[in-house]
Amino acid sequence: MGTVFSFDIHDARTAAIDAALSDAVAWLHHVDEVFSTYRSDSTISRLARGEIALDACSSEVREVLDRCARAARATEGWFSPTPGGALDPSGLVKGWAIERAWQMLREAGAHHVCVNGGGDLQLSGESAPGTPWRIGIAHPLRPGELYAVVTGNDLAVATSGTAERGAHILDPHTGAPAAGLASVTVVGSRLTPTDVYATAAFAMGERAEDWLEHLDGHEGFAVLPDGRSWRTRGFPGRFADT
Amino acid sequence: MRRAVVTAASTSTLIVLLLALKPHHTAGPVGDAAQPGVAPAPTPTGRPHKGAHPADGTFTGAPIRTTYGTVQVAATVKAGTLTAVKVLRAPSGNGRDREIAGYAVPRLTQEALSVHSAHIDAVSGASYTSAGYIRSLQSALDRAGV
User: Fold this and answer.
1) The complex's ipTM?
2) Which of A112, A156, B97, B103 is the most exposed place for a label (fewest CB within 10 A)?
3) B57-60 and B12-18: which strand pairing?
């Protein structure tokens, strides 16, 4: 089963926005065809099998792998484009694809946009005039409940955790599933790095708090397996400190 | 979608189902109906359909209750291919939070949240709602005979 993407556009409808929406949907399908590790004929699968060289790949493939390499450096190796040993840049591709789709809509004149890919979000503008977007953060330990709400206008929000798909993020240093946190949410301005940082922070576990505290341009909070939580100091708002 | 009703034609929402980038490893509510990598969505190549062409038209899926509220979609089918999905009902509200001013920086609040009264625009994290979309879409496709 794939991921559900939704586009929530709160601008007056125009032909340009309609066209951009079609283009954005086509873009997501294109990304799937090129980057899916579940399609044996995708460029990434062929690259992983050594059937084609990186030089023969499109510029977007090289861009993604370059971003993966930078993400691995920026996270001290806690994000890895080879999480199980084989090439799999999916952890970066989804956020990158969402951010690009959002950008396509922005360039077409849509200002109030929320693009959601399986719970990772890139949004801008307002939900309604004078009303910022309100993004619920799923409670990782109590299915169906929210743990907190992030309110803002221009945000990228990514959550990594065990709630949706079980333990699926591996500690790249040990190969074992990461288990130090129940979930971690990172908020930034662009989803490509924000999503990567959420994945890396989840793999880090306890160390993520100090790492996120010193990460420029991003804030985060986490829920621990016992239900306690922490957040970075730059996160304003009402929050029950534990 | 309630917000669409409130703000009439100025709002549009499109739900796109696809991508095996991060597949769910847990058994989904539609079980075998969705295979990894098979996207029941308006791909240029379309989707293989069974037997004769099913009828063209728009088919309304069953309302699916999720923990975030009820989700219902309508699927438009042309020549055996899903060409559009319209969200008829989605779990978001509009009203209580008019008093909230715009914030220059994101705010994190922890509230006594019952999901139905939270008035949220989207959820980050577990996509229980996604499962609702998929189930409602599947029922719409079943009715279409796709």
Assistant:
1) 0.84
2) B103
3) unpaired
Residue A32 has its nearest CB partner, among B10, B12, B19, at B19
pTM of the full structure: 0.71
pLDDT tens digit string along B25-57? Answer: 332 333 333 333 333 333 333 343 444 556 788
- Cα end-to-end distance, chain A, whole Å: 37
User: What span, in angstroms and rounded, lies between the C-alpha atoms of A65 and A221?
Assistant: 28
**Please, what CATH class does the domain formed by A5-239 belong to?**
alpha beta
**CATH of span B57-142:** 3.90.1010.20
**For residue A118, which residues of chain B lie inside 8 Å, CB to CB?**
22, 127, 130
Q: Which residues of A touch B41 (CB under 8 A)?
A: 25, 29
Strand partners, A33: none
- What is d(CA A38, CA A19) in angstroms, rounded to the nearest whole number? 29
C-beta contacts of A54-59 below 8 A and 24+ residues apart: A58/A34
